[in-house]
Amino acid sequence: MGLWSLLIESNIQFITLAELRLPYNIDDAILCRRCQDDRWVLFTDNRNRENNTSLQAAISSMWRPGDLPVLTLSGKGKFERFAEYRQRVAIDIADLLLGILDGEFCDRDRIYVPR
User: Fold this and answer.
1) How many domains does the chain have?
2) Mind listing the pLDDT tens digit for each residue in 28-72?
3) From CA 69, how far away is CA 100, in angstroms rounded?
4) Given the DSSP bridges, would you call strands 43-44 and 70-73 parallel, antiparallel or unpaired?
5) Domain span holding position 44
6) Long-range pairs for 76-81 at CB < 8 Å and ≥24 separation?
7) Is 19 exposed, middle or buried (0-12, 13-18, 19+ CB in 10 A)?
8) Quick one: which of 2, 51, 72, 102 is 20 to 30 A from 10 by CA?
9) Are 94 and 6 in contact (CB under 8 A)?
10) Is the pTM for the entire model greater than 0.85?
């Protein structure tokens, strides 16, 4: 069975901020809390990281063992330019999501993909 079929069979859904009617520039702390409250795995590039409202600051102040990890794209430029890199990212995300469904990876606050 292919990864896409496995994800569909597992009832994993993918949704964007726009589909949730959330602004792209939503505060990272609000976004992190919403994801944890609604049990969504956040997949993002490295968003704002300059100050105390950064994604990393939000994760550091809010994340607790048992929360879902934030999946972070390691190389946005590579992702945009190289199909092979996109494939590695897709496979890694699928593997991580299936693991999270089985209770794995919830001891980690952030996972950079591809690993």
Assistant:
1) 1
2) 889 999 999 999 999 998 765 667 778 888 899 999 999 999 999
3) 9
4) parallel
5) 3-113
6) 76/45, 76/46
7) exposed
8) 72
9) yes
10) yes
